[in-house]
Amino acid sequence: MREVIAFIIMGIGVTFDFLGCLGLVRLPDLYNRLQASTKCVTLGTILIMVGVIVFTGWNQIGFKALLTLLFILITSPTASHALARGAYKAGVKLWDKSVCDQYGGEK
Amino acid sequence: MKRFTLFIVLFFVWILLVYSKPLDKVAFRQNLWIGLLVSLFVGVYLGDLLPERVGKFYNPRRILAFLGYLPVFFWYCLLANLDVAYRVLHPRLPIRPGIVKVKTSIKSESGRVALANSITLTPGTLSVDLVGDTLYVHWIYVRSENIEEATEYIVKRFEKFLKIIFD
User: Fold this and answer.
1) How many structural domains are present in chain A?
2) CA A13, CA A50: separation in Å to the nearest integer?
3) Predicted TM-score of the model (pTM)
C-alpha cells in the first residue's frame, strides 16, 4: 500500500517535471521559459523527494531526501532570480509581444 | 545568539546526514563528536555573518505565523504549477508577458528576500530584481500595469504573513 502511494506521488512529480520541460521548448523567450522551468521543476522534484520519503520511511535515505527537498526549495527560486537578473543586465531582450517593461525604463 | 543558532542548525543538519536506521553505535558516536567540534568552530567564528538578529525568531507569535504561512505557500505553489500546465498545454499559448514594478512595505532585508522567493514560486510571476522596497516582477499574464493594482494582486497575499514573521 505504501509503495503504491509513493509511486503515485512520484508519478505526479515526474508529470510536473515533464510539463516544465515542455514549457522550456514551447514558450517564446528566456524569462517565460525560466518561469515554467522554475515552478514546475521545483514542485516536481519536491514531489519526487516526498515520494522517496514515503517509500523508504524515516531511515538514512529518507532524511537525506528531506534535506535535499529543503535545499531545493531555498536555492531554486534564488537561482532563477540570479539567471533572470543576469540575463537582463547582459542585454537579453524580452519577447516582441511583451506588453510592458518597467524595469528598463528606470535606468 | 547568532552563534548559538548557527551551531544548532549546523549540528542538526549533520545529525540528519550521518543517522542510519540500524544504528552503528561506535561510528555514530565518532560522527557526533566530529560534528560537535566542527559546528562549534564554524558557529563561533562565522556566526556573525548571519544578516540580522535571529533572537526574534524564538518568539511564538512568529513561529505560529510561519506555520500558518506554510499551507498558504504550498497551495499557491500547486496553483502555479497548474497555471503553467494550462498555459503550456493550451494550443495557442495564452501569455501576455511583461515586467512590472511592485512595492513592498516589509522593512527587514531577509523578509524581502523571502517575499521575492515566494513570488517566484507562485502563479505567473518571477522576481527579477529587488532594489530597496521595489520589486521588479516578470509577469506571464499582465493584468494591470499600474503599480498599486499589481502590488495588490502579487504582493498582498504573502505580505500579511511575512510582516508578522520578519518585521
Assistant:
1) 1
2) 9
3) 0.84
